[in-house]
Amino acid sequence: MPPPSQPTLPADIITALTSLSTKYPDNCELITLPDKSAEPPGVDIKCVRLHDGNAPRDPAVLIMGGIHAREMAPPDALLRLAQELLDAYKTSTDIVFPALLANVNGPPVTSVSYPSYTFPIDKIKKIFGNIDLYILPCVNPDGRLYDITHPGVPFGPGWRRNRRPNPDNPDPSAIGTDLNRNFDIAWDFARFFDMVLYRSKYARGPSATVDTNDTFNGITGQNRTVTVAGGASGGSFILSFNGADTTPIAFGAPAADVQTKLTALATIGAGNATVAGPDGGPYQVTFTGARNHPVAMLTANYAALTGGAGSNPHIEIVHPGPATEPETKNVQWLMDQRKIRFFLDVHQAGRSIMYPWGLEDNGDDDTMTFQNHAWDWKRDGLLPGDVPAGHQNYSEFMPSKIPYYLGSKLPEIANSMATAILEAAGADPKAATGADPRKDHSTYAPGPIARYYDKSGTGPLTANSVDYIFSRQFIDTSRSPIYALAMEVGADEENGFHPDYTPPNNHYLKIEREVFAACLEFASVAARWCKWCLIATAAYGDHAHPDVEYLRDLRERVRRSHPRAVAVLERIYYSFSPAVARFLTGRRRWRAVVRVAVVRPVVVILKACDGR
Amino acid sequence: MNIVRVTATSDVLRTLHDIGGFETFGGGLTEAEGQEDVWTSSAYATDEAIAQVRARGARVEVVLDADTRLAQLNREAEQARARLRDIERETEGERGTQDEAGD
């Protein structure tokens, strides 16, 4: 299948996926996700599972793209990835990219020559042999179709959201939801953060991100609960909606007064909101009219609230739930139904490979977690050096110890993907800047997602797909570990969200090769790490210890000759080993005992029997 | 909109979001070499927005001008519409075949 010469339409992506499942029934399962897209009548959203003839298994890898409509290249590249992997596996041949000449924007425009690049069949066989690979090329088909067919729309650089209609508002820009702010993780950021503290640095902030065109986290008919809390006994507070502030609302104000001040805002308007509840709250705010869409975050400034000694007067605002969109639900469904342990969300553009957390900077205090509601309305959203005196810095807990080493493994994966991209470009990784154009224009920066909010002032990325998938292991610990990453492919040098698919620019072909290199490395890592020996790994504190490697290798060899027996044994082993591994965490003596008295003797005996 | 690169201190960058017709994108934020707290960000910007960004002390470099960009998008949209018409014809053809089979 040749590369596309223009962005592929969503309908053609579905047709191509269907053709793959027909052509390769033994290795490609076509899955129609349960929810049709949001724009009536809705279209089916489909993905494929690439496998080795087996039933769905654990572990599974999910790579998806196109959640943001205008990001053109990822859906095409992921469809091609599925096609090329299946073709190569069935014909037992390498995937070969021919030499390429592509332009990058300047100024001035520069032509860069890339050598041929080969991904060998033995690595492809390891991927098929060890993991189930789910590829969901286009999460948001309605948005993609709209973006392709509406060039130069007056909404900025292209359409980003889905196409959920808005019967209440004729403004064509006032529809749709940013699907990557709609996942069930820290969605309710007015509760998640101390908004006054947060806005001390991010004037625009997450609420403004929602209020403006970027994000629409809800649907028509939703309401908010506003509670004056923390021992407040006087003073006043201000409510904000779509960037407009009410006049001060006195502590103890009746609901009618709150309603009057809200509906006086130009961003709401008379008759477009009702407020009910007792004097002083809690107030039930319901948006009812044309301003109800896009439903924005209502936020509060409570710096002028007062209270007695030791009090912490503030406003608590509760918004409705996340995952309102069918496209978001589909991804969550896949996560729930299939044992996804490795997840990659492919975005465009910015040449970066990112890992959790997005909702805050990473830290090592295990009491600071998204699940700890004692931190609600107190998290800062700031980097440690920016937190004002008198406030305790909040950093989201990232476990870095045994058995899973998430804090070090995530950067390790990101780095190996970045290296794979450079290798695919034929770049010299040690070249100085300016010495090797292949390196200069194919260098991807690894890092945690949250680092992006600092300098440009756009705020942490709450409710995004990566944080959601990653968070599931802390809610259901039997599913640990889960590794989740995102990448931003391409750059302004390749026309931003809309790369040129045609010569002489060939932006798409360059990006496609980078997507392949990164995704294949990601899947290869998953294939290597997928089912490590948890207890041995915990005992040694190193998943790459020779004894651990030996046990893993032995299991794979036995699996080839006795697949059913290994499957049964694995089911038994993985029913208790995560609990044992967790028990060993932090118990140095127990780890030594298990290492010396159990694992080492077992390895010695097995090696003797194995003739090694 | 043009695709641009904006270089400024983080304090200036944070103020640019209230400019209409200006939107930064992706993770394309890099630290300018040899200058403390000076950053370069990729963005989409109208001509009017570029003038406002410059007025706030940021350096702006146009990477892809709006006309060139729009010409590419228009070309792709035209191809897409043609393909949509083909898909519609194919679908109608399939329906017709099914109807005949049903008869």
Give a concise summary.
The complex is a heterodimer of chains A (612) and B (103). By secondary structure, chain A is α+β, with helices and mostly antiparallel strands.
Characterise the protein shown here.
The complex is a heterodimer of chains A (612) and B (103). In chain A, the strands form six sheets. In chain A, strands 1-2-8-3-18-23-19-22 form an eight-stranded mixed β-sheet, sandwiched between helices. Chain A has 612 residues and is α+β, with helices and mostly antiparallel strands. Chain A folds into three domains: 10-152 and 325-361 and 446-529, Zn peptidases (Aminopeptidase); 186-318, no CATH class; 534-610, no CATH class. Chain B contains three helices and five strands, in the order βαβββαβα. In chain B, 50% of the residues lie in helices and 26% in strands. In chain B, strands 1, 2, 3, 4 and 5 form a five-stranded antiparallel β-sheet that branches. The mean pLDDT of chain B is 86. The interface between A and B is large, with 45 and 40 residues.
Summarize this structure as a short list of keywords or feature phrases.
A: alpha+beta; Aminopeptidase; five-stranded antiparallel beta sheet; B: 103 residues; Alpha-Beta Plaits; elongated
